[in-house]
Design goal:
By secondary structure, the chain is an alpha+beta fold. It has 2 domains: about 10-125, Aminopeptidase (3-Layer(aba) Sandwich), CATH 3.40.630.30; about 135-280, Aminopeptidase, CATH 3.40.630. Helices cover about 30% and strands about 35% of the residues. It has helices at about 15-25, 85-100, 115-120, 160-170, 180-190, 230-245, 260-265, and strands at about 10, 30, 50-55, 55-60, 70, 75-80, 105-110, 125-135, 150-155, 190-195, 200-210, 215-220, 250-255, 270-285. It has a 9-stranded mixed sheet, sandwiched between helices. Strand 3 (about 50-55) and strand 4 form a beta hairpin. The longest helix has 18 residues, at about 85-100. It is elongated.
Length: about 280
Amino acid sequence: MAVKIDFQVRPAASMDQRQIANLIHFESYVHRHLDWRNPLDWIGVPPYLVVEQDGRVAAALACPPDPPQVAWIRLFVNSDRLPLKEAWDILWAAAQAGLRRNGNARVAVIALKDWFRGLLTDSGFTLRQQIVMFERREGMLTHEARPPGIKIRPMTIRDLPAVVAVDAAAFDPLWHNSLPALNRAYHQAMLSTVAESAQGLIGYQISTQNPYGAHLARLAVRPEAQGQGVGKALVSELIQGLARRGAARLTVNTQDDNFPSLALYKRLGFGATGERYPVFDFPVQ
């Protein structure tokens, strides 16, 4: 005779932080979004749900919308006390219900692990595109002529509202960054610069440091300024700045269907690493 497993699904609370952290660090089934915020920082922002079993957190799922109507799965983690698919089905159903109460949302996830891809496919998620990784190991570039009338300078915190506007104009809504997200990115950056013309701020880049060099985390140019060498100038300045700091390796990722970005990175000496990660999404209505 099957034994019924008693559990409770509820919102995560601050008192759960240590248990969720232990699951993240010690369990095998862990998905973490590539984010500016630690998964624990999202506790209290719904939907962030846990399965509690015998007074202990057995699984957790976080997919709070940011910006509105776009909800990336920030965390899914499961312990061996609950079957993986059962934990996912329970939490995903509860998360959808929470998102529906607040209107429509597009739930998205970059699936880094094979086991997670199977769960997503079984739940009706659609494969939209692939994230592809590139790296550059050369030194400085030869001198690159800057587009006429374009100034590149360090980003300041006062630039962030204009940077958000560039971000919103340059990308599909799925990839928009909110002002709080870009504020965190700015404060975590190794190098961040903006491009200005007579019309104002038209592009920016934010790069972070890692043990191997640096990562170009974000590059955006307003649509009306694309094709004029602004993105190339921003990345060229970045490469020169990193070379002066002795950073030997620069990585970047982009979507496999973002052909202008793919062409830009190839022209600047980036090569594909072979790493590819699928992006799935699901409309909650």
